[in-house]
């Protein structure tokens, strides 16, 4: 019997509770390719085969307030032919997750991002450009010696380490659909900018990417704009930037020339000695804000650019959904092994994309564009968790 037919039979045999709504978006071919990445792949009959452990990892993200072995029972996850009410030992669930590893879950997440993050819906663009955002977040792991040794943590004002190890997450999100196109996970000490470098190639042509000011750097921004067709960026200005005015387009709109730092040129010798950046200023509740961008003044007005940057907040809402709504406000990840921490977070990201995909399709079914609903409380991700 083919793998595809076996998986279809599993769907008919078992009630996957809420998961069935979301797993229908994952083609069987993706699952088959993902499972080939498991270093411990085996065709031996087990109580928890790898294909069902994938669904278990998704269930862990949906039912954060329940122990993992209870999630397995809730979803009726067990090997075909075994009694559905068989008791699954906690150790058996943990060993099954170890056999699966993190790679298959990461693969499926990246497939969803690549396929769904670039989907276009009516009215979801800005001046014919897709609107993306890059930002970072921290996730807290349990405090165990091996986790602290791997992930590390920050220092407090008293020069003591923070109480819990921290994982760093940097994500690339389509702010109109809230689908995460790509993400990088790393120990705490890794730079957000270097993590963002890892998926610059995933940014589609004809797009504009919104950044937080912590991502300011000639290497990152010039690489983004130069390695594709019509790819732009938008970022808040940092204080005390040294620049020379080249052209003034309006009262609060001008072109600046800045020197590329020696550190950036050492890291990337292909960078020029200077680069030109457009500066736009605008006022919010009496406070003057300044943004820098690669968007040309002859095509995009200063007012439109200023309004566009307000959409950067959408990625913060996505992180809120990941860390608060889906995690049931639990501040610490549940896994206690390094490999399983990565598996858990990739599963969280995969499940997030599945929920957003379902929300997008539901919006289309009712004749609405997903981006008009992304921030609407009526379609909050907490509905599904």
Features:
single chain; 385 residues; alpha+beta; 9-stranded mixed β-sheet; 15 helices; 9 strands; globular; disordered C terminus
What does this protein structure show overall?
With 385 residues, the chain is α+β, with helices and mostly antiparallel strands. The chain has two domains: 3-101; 118-315, no CATH class. Helix content is 39%, strand content 18%. It contains 15 helices and nine strands. It has helices at residues 3-13, 19-23, 28-35, 50-62, 68-74, 90-100, 103-116, 145-151, 192-197, 218-226, 262-267, 302-309, 313-325, 338-365, 370-373; strands spanning 130-140, 166-174, 180-187, 207-211, 231-236, 244-250, 253-259, 274-284, 287-293. A nine-stranded mixed sheet has the order 3-2-1-4-5-9-8-7-6, sandwiched between helices. Strand 6 and strand 7 form a beta hairpin. Helix 3 runs antiparallel to helix 7 and helix 4 (50-62) crosses helix 14. The longest helix has 28 residues, at 338-365. The two termini are 35 Å apart.
Topology:
Elements: H1 3-13, H2 19-23, H3 28-35, H4 50-62, H5 68-74, H6 90-100, H7 103-116, E1 130-140, H8 145-151, E2 166-174, E3 180-187, H9 192-197, E4 207-211, H10 218-226, E5 231-236, E6 244-250, E7 253-259, H11 262-267, E8 274-284, E9 287-293, H12 302-309, H13 313-325, H14 338-365, H15 370-373
Parallel strand pairs: 1-4, 4-5
Antiparallel strand pairs: 1-2, 2-3, 5-9, 6-7, 7-8, 8-9
Helix pairs in contact: 3-7, 4-6, 4-14, 7-14
């Amino acid at each position: 019997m083919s793998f595809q037919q076996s998986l279809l039979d599993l769907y008919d045999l078992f009630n996957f509770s809420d998961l069935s709504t979301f797993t229908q978006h994952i083609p069987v071919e993706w699952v088959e390719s993902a499972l080939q990445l498991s270093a411990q792949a085996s065709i031996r009959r087990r109580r928890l085969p790898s294909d069902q452990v994938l669904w278990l990892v998704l269930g862990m993200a949906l039912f954060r307030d329940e122990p993992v072995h209870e999630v397995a029972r809730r979803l009726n996850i067990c090997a075909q032919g075994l009694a559905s009410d068989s008791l699954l030992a906690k150790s058996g669930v943990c060993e099954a997750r170890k056999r699966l590893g993190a790679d298959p879950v990461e693969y499926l997440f990246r497939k969803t991002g690549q396929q769904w993050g670039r989907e276009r819906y009516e009215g979801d663009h800005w001046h014919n450009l897709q609107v993306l955002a890059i930002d970072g977040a921290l996730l807290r792991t349990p405090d165990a010696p091996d986790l602290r040794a791997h992930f590390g943590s920050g220092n407090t004002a008293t020069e003591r380490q923070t109480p819990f190890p921290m994982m760093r997450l940097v994500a690339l999100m389509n702010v109109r659909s809230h689908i995460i196109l790509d993400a990088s996970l790393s120990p705490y000490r890794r730079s957000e900018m270097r993590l963002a470098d890892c998926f610059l190639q995933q940014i589609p042509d004809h797009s504009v990417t919104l950044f937080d000011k912590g991502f300011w750097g000639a290497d990152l921004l010039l690489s983004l704009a130069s390695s594709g067709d019509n790819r732009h960026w938008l970022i808040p200005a940092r204080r005390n930037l040294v620049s020379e005015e080249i052209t003034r387009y309006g009262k609060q709109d001008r072109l600046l020339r800045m020197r590329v730092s020696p550190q950036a040129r050492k890291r990337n010798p292909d960078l020029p000695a200077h680069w030109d950046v457009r500066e736009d200023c605008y006022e919010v509740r009496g406070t003057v804000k300044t943004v820098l961008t690669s968007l040309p003044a002859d095509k995009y007005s200063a007012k439109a650019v200023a309004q566009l940057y307000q959409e950067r907040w959408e990625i913060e809402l996505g992180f809120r959904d990941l860390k608060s709504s889906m995690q049931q406000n639990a501040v610490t990840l549940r896994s206690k092994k390094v490999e399983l921490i990565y598996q858990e977070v990739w599963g969280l990201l995969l499940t997030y994309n599945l929920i957003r995909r379902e929300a997008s399709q539901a919006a289309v079914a009712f004749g609405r564009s997903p981006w008009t609903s992304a921030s609407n409380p009526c379609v909050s991700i907490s509905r599904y968790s």
